[in-house]
Amino acid sequence: MSTVVKYFVTIFGIGFFPAAPGTLGSIFAIFVWYLSISLLNIYFFYLVFILVFLIAFKSVEMYLNNECKKDDPSEVIIDEFIGQSIPLLFLIDYNVYEVLLAFCAFRFFDITKIYPINNAEKLSGAKGVIMDDIIAGIYSLIIIMFYKIVLSF
């Protein structure tokens, strides 16, 4: 298997960190988002997200078939990057409270696997690895939108 695929799905090997690799994947997404909005603009982050999303399914499938025989190996954290990025796509400027809320909400939903996240996780292959994080990301986006609506009153 390609070393490139291994480094992509583990985000440069961060996924092999022994403690909380999923949390580190989420933090990496926030780091990339912050660099994007600080040095370039939100559109760069949109582009990164789209590219990662498109490449992730095939890469994770390759990793699962060639490198690992687990359904959802803990070192694969590109799914956390994708899921955490979903609420960040709608944060166009830096607000520490919104970023912290997006992070905590995503980690909560990703860890607790409330319905239908628990069902998405049961899908086979890369779909099961990635879709549960996408749903957790959508749930955390809903929390962010609710927060923004409440603050607007």
* Helical coverage, percent range: over 70%
The averaged pLDDT comes out at 92
Distance between the termini: 54 Å
Please give the domain count: 1
**Low-confidence sequence ranges:** none
Total DSSP helices: 7
Could you give a short account of the major beta sheet? none
Which of globular, elongated, flat, extended, rod-shaped describes the shape?
globular
Coarse structural class: mainly alpha
Radius of gyration from CA coordinates = 15 Å
Strand proportion: under 5%
H/E element order: HHHHHHH
Report the strand count: 0
How would you describe the overall organization of this protein?
- The protein is an all-alpha fold.
- The protein has one domain (3-152).
- Helices cover 73% and strands 0% of the residues.
- The protein is built from 7 helices and no strands.
- It has helices spanning 3-9, 21-39, 42-66, 78-88, 96-112, 117-120, 125-152.
- The protein is globular and about 50 Å long.
- The mean pLDDT is 92.
